[in-house]
Amino acid sequence: MKKTIRYVLSEGIKTLQDNHITHAKIDATLLLEHLLDIDRVYVIIHDDEVITEQAYKLYRHGIMLRAKGKPLQYIIGHVAFMGLNFTVNEHVLIPRQDTEILVEEAITCIQKNKVTHILEIGTGSGCIPISLCHACPTIKVTTVDISKEAIEVAKENARQHGVEDRIAFIHSDLLQQVDKTKRYELIISNPPYIKREDIQGLMREVKDHEPMRALDGGMDGLDFYRRISTDVMEVASHRCYIFYEVGHNQSIEVKDILEERGYTHVKIIKDLAGINRVVTGEKYQSKTNRI
Known about the structure:
The chain is of the alpha/beta class.
């Protein structure tokens, strides 16, 4: 049998279906497009084109990885977020479209209030600060992550998008290594928020491949919201905005965490699916803390 695009794609789809991969056709097609550097139209029009033996072997290797549950984004090595392309590997959480509403809301706040100094906590791939810098050319961002490997991925993404001179990357457990003499006008974070007892119930692509410390939010999933909401007061400017992504059914609890710590104008924002996805608030402090 000639290894045409049609044949190898059909074979790939069947392998993924036999291994109960939910989006078998989509994943098999995307992997083939990536390896051959072609688009969907080319796949349709040239489906009788024969591919090389080397390309076939690479494709089968990728298909078998996907069949075993490895996320397609890690196999391909990149993912789209906010219209930009980000390198990813198993040291970083895969950026999700759900997080785009967090970035969009922060951009609106930055532009409306002329924010210039931002602190992000838990950068992962760097998709949040890089997207902010891409949309807002006057800002500077400091971002932290407990993982040295994640910091390296984020730095590479910043270089690829030409914003490395506007982002300071710090290897730190939350704010431990952050310069406490600096002040930030906006804090943003998509922290770990999965309840510890719920992690084993996640899809195997997530629980078996994505970094556990980017998922585990403690017993009730709220540990990092409590810590961050308290700790950032030390580096917040006299008027500081805070933006969180939150998990399903956590928005009211995170709203309470902020209000208990003196944050005002706390709002819950829904994503495009109508799910409470972002919690934001403001913190006013003495003007001696001004940037």
